[in-house]
Amino acid sequence: MADAVGITVEDVSFGYPGRPVLAGVDLRVEPGELTALVGLNGCGKSTLLRLVAGLLRPASGRVLLGEDDLARLTRRATARRVALLHQSAPAVPGLTVRQLVRQGRYAARGPLGMLRAGEDSTVARALADAGVTAWADRPVDALSGGERQRVRLAMALAQDTRVLLLDEPTTYLDLRHQLEVLQTVVRLREERGLTVLMVLHDLAHAARFAERIVALRGGVVVADGAPEEVVTPAFLAEVLDVVGRVGVDPEGGWPVCYPDHPAATSKR
């Protein structure tokens, strides 16, 4: 297995006409690290993820995967280096689980390779690693929301990259399936030596599952560190606009947040 690859974001700015989103963001995710991006809606989390995935180009600054500058890579070459699990995806009627997961091999096999019958060992491994082999011949649209999310994770794994990006992977899932997906990501990160950067809405999940939390506000990084270092009452107020308390889980040792009410004055 290839060595893990780090992510470097250097002084990146990005925006749309009349709406700046990111302003001079610097971020380094070490090889093999699991980092959570948190912040209010509209703070630039998903935009930053799409920049790291090569789906957007920065207005200034640069993004590197290892030593590779994404600005110098084609879209297909980037897809061989980084996989992105989107927050939501349109339904694909008529496809089985196996057929959908095989779509993750496009970057490696190309359009002609995708027409060949059968699957390679990478697809089989992705199905197994995400725990969906037993569903391989079932229609995707017959699965539950939690099952579909695991299938989409398998499709991302089928790209066989060293960097995995996840945009709110627990959205729309019940608590059990949220835990299943996050525990699967943690396990695969360890087994495959992945570098993982994921956007999470739930600060409790970020504090429990991530090694590091990076918070965005107003298009810049306003907090960065281990959960036990950065998650404080001041963090809740300054980053999330809520007044609350922070305790410690007696078994795991990670921070536990008790939000009480919205902050009286929003800084948005």
UniProtKB/TrEMBL annotation:
Q: Which UniProt keywords apply?
A: ATP-binding, Cell membrane, Ion transport, Iron, Iron transport, Membrane, Nucleotide-binding, Transport
Q: Which GO terms describe its cellular component?
A: plasma membrane
Gene3D superfamilies, per the entry = P-loop containing nucleotide triphosphate hydrolases
Report whether ATP-binding shows up as a keyword of the record: yes
Q: Which SMART domains match?
A: AAA
Chief place where the protein resides: membrane
UniProt-annotated location(s) = Cell membrane
The way it spans or sits in the membrane comes to: Peripheral membrane protein
GO terms (BP aspect):
iron ion transport
For this protein, the record's Pfam families field holds: ABC_tran
Residues covered by the ABC transporter domain: 7-243
Q: Does the keyword Membrane apply?
A: yes
An annotated Gene Ontology molecular function: ATP hydrolysis activity
PANTHER family recorded: IRON(3+)-HYDROXAMATE IMPORT ATP-BINDING PROTEIN FHUC (PTHR42771)
Q: What name goes with this protein?
A: ABC transporter ATP-binding protein
List the source organism. Streptomyces alkaliterrae
